[in-house]
Design brief:
The protein is of the alpha+beta class and about 575 residues long. The chain folds into three domains: about 1-130, NTF2-like, domain 1 (Nuclear Transport Factor 2, Chain: A); about 145-245, Penicillin-binding protein 2a (Domain 2), CATH 3.90.1310.10; about 250-565, DD-peptidase/beta-lactamase superfamily (Beta-lactamase). It is about 30% helix and about 25% strand. It has 21 helices and 25 strands. The strands form eight sheets. The protein has a six-stranded antiparallel beta sheet, with helices on both faces. Strands 1, 2, 3, 4 and 5 form a five-stranded antiparallel beta sheet that branches. Helix 11 packs across helix 15 and helix 11 packs across helix 19. The chain is elongated, with a radius of gyration of 32 Å. The N and C termini lie far apart (about 85 Å).
């Protein structure tokens, strides 16, 4: 025990060597990123020259410049006298992202009962009056590729090229200057604040992979020297090139989707009907959740069929609306509709769907929506990447509210929000006999989502939905979504967003004002084709559209689905 105590005392400092004990405590605190404990080891003269805040800021700045990832301190060595000072060497091993591992001793001056601190002690190897600087060398940025190897984005970060033109940018995103909020995350990966980085799309999601690993020189520069002055090299490493990202995107479908959207506000998402892989993304395909309107009736119908609340041949009264929870809600445009449930679905008759919300109940409606992927991030890439980029979720309140709230939620209004990607996934689930697949946009196993297939409904219920959705295109609100190659199964949607009133100055306002109010609306179409042999699923959204989903969103889907069979 005496021997062990002696060894520990020798390592950590003994009452007979206060300078060594102080040096060990200082190094251990640095290793633990405890700047307050480090500051406590300074002598009075040093504390008079630098405040705790300035002290911590100096070490954080050095950490960012050096791209430090960790400090490992060895026990302090024996003190020596140098120039009238007592110096205590502490061996350090500092891991950096951009410059490799630096193994260097830090010479800590000790006097008057504490460490005689100076700014050069923020990094080993700096001499008195020297400061830390870095010359970062970026690696060549790797390409983003389509499924067939076509380059969607390539070239240096500052001169990124898109061989397919603007059609690819909706998928790849762009490279630009990082925001101030992103600077700490970039610094952790070795990139200085001014580094061009992915700011949207796949360029952002896979920025670290595409950018590779930076290299360069870590320098000790004389304090009075200007920016960029030459200095002593403390550490050096070569940059490591980034790795390309191969996507599941079909170039022809991507160009078609972008052309069909034609620059309008909204989005188009195209999925493989069987495995769920993303084949095209145009506009705000997964970034701007909106009320899905009557496309949500697919989900409501699944829940109702599973609870045996309705059969396809059930008859409903022909009416222009219905009273739910003390509120009379009209059908779209006040038209009369009803008949069998097949007919009601084809004509998107609100009066027949509104009562289903309360009958299904809060728990079952939310449970069914979540089985389709609501209230969870989209499964485009691995969970780690999803967490970093935080793509928008399609959502439904877990506690919807009163009877009328359940009713309007059942027709995709109220607080229900969805993206075209989500509604394409809903159609894909129906096409795949009731099994929802991850919507991966990449092929590499380590980049793909880890989600397993989810059985949302039985094949029988999926077949019933296909029959209902087929009626929408053959004789209902979605006839404009038909294609020559075969039968399309679909659901239209038109979500009311509020009123628009034009003032005397011609400026649009919202609210109850004089003049003829017009309702703003989102136009939707969720579909798959063909029923005979499912190939693609598609979700289309036009924000603040000029007409209903069956009129303006359905033709976009028809154009995209037709392109798959050319």
């Amino acid at each position: 025990m005496a021997i062990v105590a002696f060894v520990v005392g020798a390592a950590m400092g003994t009452p007979g060597s206060p300078e060594k004990a102080a040096a060990n405590r200082f190094a251990e605190a640095w290793q633990a990123k405890n700047f307050a404990a480090m500051y406590a080891e300074l002598n009075d003269a040093s504390r008079a020259k630098v405040t705790p805040k300035q002290f911590a800021a100096a070490y954080r700045e050095a950490r960012d410049i050096a791209t430090m990832r960790g400090v490992v301190a060895e026990p302090a060595e024996g003190a020596r006298s140098e120039g009238g000072e007592t110096i205590v060497p502490v061996p350090l091993r500092i891991r950096t992202v951009a410059f490799g591992t630096v193994e260097e001793g830090l010479d800590l001056p000790w006097s008057e009962g504490g460490i005689d601190w100076a700014s050069n002690l923020v990094f080993p190897g700096l001499g008195r009056g020297e400061k830390l600087e870095a010359e970062t060398e970026l690696a060549p940025r790797a390409a983003i590729l389509a499924a067939d190897g076509t380059a969607l984005a390539e070239g240096p970060a500052l001169e990124r090229e898109h061989p397919m033109g603007s059609a690819a940018i909706d998928v790849t995103g762009e490279v630009g200057e990082a925001s101030a909020e992103e600077a700490p995350r970039l610094a952790a990966h070795g990139f200085p604040p001014e580094t061009p980085v992915g700011i949207s799309g796949l360029e952002k999601a896979f920025n670290q992979r595409l950018a590779g690993k930076p290299g360069g020189k870590l320098l000790a520069v004389a304090g009075g020297a200007g920016k960029g002055a030459k200095g002593r090299v403390l550490a050096e490493s070569a940059p490591r090139a980034g790795a390309p990202v191969k996507t599941t995107i079909d170039p022809h479908l991507q160009e078609t989707a972008v052309a069909a959207l034609a620059g309008r506000a909204g989005g188009v998402a195209v999925l493989d009907a069987k495995n769920g892989d993303v084949r095209a993304l145009a506009g705000q395909a997964f970034s701007a959740p909106q009320p899905p309107g009557s496309t949500f009736k697919i989900i409501t119908t699944v829940a109702a069929l599973q609870k045996n609340l309705v059969k396809l041949n059930d008859e409903f009264e022909i009416t222009n609306g219905i009273n739910v929870g003390g509120r009379f809600i009209e059908n779209a445009n006040g038209e009369y509709c009803g008949g069998t449930f097949l007919e009601a679905f084809a004509e998107s008759c609100n009066a027949d769907f509104l009562p289903l919300g309360p009958q299904i109940g809060n728990a079952k409606l939310v449970e069914t929506a979540e089985a389709f992927g609501f209230n969870a991030p989209p499964t485009l890439y691995s969970p780690a990447i999803v967490k970093e980029v935080e793509p928008a979720e399609s959502t439904i309140p877990t506690e919807i509210g009163e009877e009328v709230d359940l009713a309007v939620s059942a027709i995709g209004q109220g607080e229900v929000l969805a993206t075209p990607l989500q509604m394409a996934s809903v159609a894909q689930t129906i096409a795949n006999d009731g099994v929802r697949m991850p919507t991966s946009i990449v092929y590499a196993k380590n980049l793909k989502p880890t989600m397993k297939p989810v059985r949302v409904m039985s094949k029988k219920v999926a077949d019933q939905l296909t029959e209902l959705m087929t009626g929408v295109v053959t004789e209902g609100t979605g006839t404009a979504g038909a294609i020559a190659a075969g039968q399309v199964a679909a659901k239209t949607g038109t979500a009311e967003l509020g009123q628009v009133v034009e003032s005397e100055e011609g400026v649009e306002e919202t609210g109850e004002e004089e003049g003829e109010p017009q309702h703003k609306k989102d136009a939707w179409f969720s579909a798959y084709a063909t029923v005979e042999k499912p190939k693609l699923a598609v979700g289309v959204l036009l924000i603040e559209a000029e007409a209903a989903g069956g009129e303006v969103a359905a033709p976009i889907a028809s154009q995209v689905l037709s392109a798959a069979y050319e």
